[in-house]
Design brief:
heterodimer, A: mainly alpha, 4 helices, disordered N terminus, B: mainly alpha
Chain lengths: 102, 212
Amino acid sequence: MTTMFKLNQIKPKTQDAVWLTLMMLTLGNALIAESADPSLWVTVIIASSIAIKGRLVVERFMELHNAHRWIRFTMNLYFLVLPLMIVAVFTFPELFADMTRI
Amino acid sequence: MTDSAITLGGTNPSVDQPSLIAQAVPPKAGRIPGNDAVWVGIYAEMTEFALMFVIYFVAKVQYLTLFDQGPQQLNTLAGTLNTLALLTSSYCVAKAMACIRIDRPQTAARWLYGTLACALCYLLVKSWEYQWNTEQGIGVDTNIFFTVYYYMTFNHFLHVAWGGGAIGWAIFQLKRGAYTADNHEGMEAIASYWHMIDLVWIIIFPLLYVLR
């Protein structure tokens, strides 16, 4: 083997930075839980933090950034659909209540 | 780079960490991390929790007041500590995977001990939280919010417990030299499963403790 591998592996400093970002986002969420009144913007911020945290773990810790494209796609999709559902349910609760009433 | 550099790099103390990482065999592009079987399990678990999230949304739109008051009655400190513990546990697993790729099983095992410590911390905090809830007069049948809360969090609690068992197995395998830089499929499967447990909590925490 004479060629240097081009590394797809996550660098240690990147892992450290991802961990720090996740910690900060979590503490931010906790602060919101304790202080902020419910509003659309608060909901959007929380939903966005779920999307960001999910994507960071999927791409950087789970290392799906170079995995099979369907595995990567479906895992990232999960963290797009759930945050959108959170915002949709907050924005149109009566619509969803009507749709799900037996 | 020679073959010997790749083979011996992990045990040669003169080789520094950055060059070892540069020599590590990278994960193959387009691969299935771990193996097919663990991904069947991961998708099954993610689907199970997705159904619970659907139940949460349906219950929430039907009982908006209860789902507004519920999070304010829960112990946010416990939820936050558990989130920090699980995210840190995932970080330790990612570090362990990086170590095994440069053929450092002992260091990888130490990182996985960190994961086990975080899992234990999660289980203890969650048990304390359930006890705290009881003291506040909160139980499974208090109202629909707490029924959903207990159903979701206790299910997740069980996943952390048996996921911790799998991490313990990975440590045992590392100690007996079963995983190497070239052969660590089993460890990667366990790592992927553990990340899934963390991912689910990333959603549960804001749903139950933050959103009103």
